[in-house]
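[audit] Reproducing an earlier prediction to check determinism. Same input, same settings, fresh worker. If the tokens differ from the archived copy the diff job will pick it up downstream; this log only records the rerun itself.
[audit] input (310 residues):
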Amino acid sequence: MSLKTTTAALLALAVSAAPALAGPAHNQTTYNTVDVDDVSIFYREAGPKDAPTILLLHGFPTSSHMFRDLIPELAEKYHVVAPDYPGFGQSSAPSADEYDYDFATLSKTMNHFVEALDLDEYTLFMQDFGGPVGLRMLDAHPERVEGVIIQNATFHVEGWNPDIVKQFAPFWGDRNSETEAPLRQFLAPQTTEWQYRQGSTLAERLSPDAWTHAQAGLDRPGNTEVQLEYLWNYQDNVANYDAWHAKLAKLQPETLVVWGQNDPFFTLTGVEAIQKLLPEAETHFYDAGHFALETHAQEIAGEILEFMAH
């Protein structure tokens, strides 16, 4: 074969291979921002945009970073979107004088976020803070919600560990420096690490990146006041439990519960309450803690994919 012929053959091979190499895989995560309600919302996105959407709502004290292992698993078949709330992760964190850090405002911002992305329908994945955020979104726009996935997010009084309630109740009853002190400890590095380690198994899967990333967000200047505002306002979520129960009982959304059974915050009694409220809910338990995705992302992804395929 001549040099000219060999060169032509190599060029043809390169051209034929180029589209496969250049085209991004559907499950490649992209990192984006959009301005909503005078705040910049950071979000992770992956998967085909014409596929059904799964909206991932994170907990405290983390961000969309908690979904880093889950997103690629789901994005093979589904459009996945995971925002950071104001004051968390890579989203902007205006002072408490510039943004109302309460759950009603946060949920409105998240509703405006999905509208900015033209998301008309989605399945809600709710963990921890994601519970009250998602349930407020469901309450405001039930027509948008195709299904609900609950991962260690409680909305029943009996779902709380009484030892945790003892720390919150005085703060909610009379906010002052003394009652605020235990809540400030929720923002300390040792507590953040404890939240991830407590109840977790499969230690070889538990990455220190999880709590160091979360703590970096908590340690931003002014963020202590932001988080204390959220924690103070959490009592409004408890006040809405009965209304949310009535809404869910009426709607009976398709529901999947994936639960770390060693959660130090939210109890298995709370799961029983969910099952009573939503008797058709599919429930799976894992030998994991509050942040079950840190050790059981692949297993939970499998259940979500099966649930979504129904």
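[audit] rerun output stored. Observation attached for the diff report: The mean pLDDT is 93.
[audit] end
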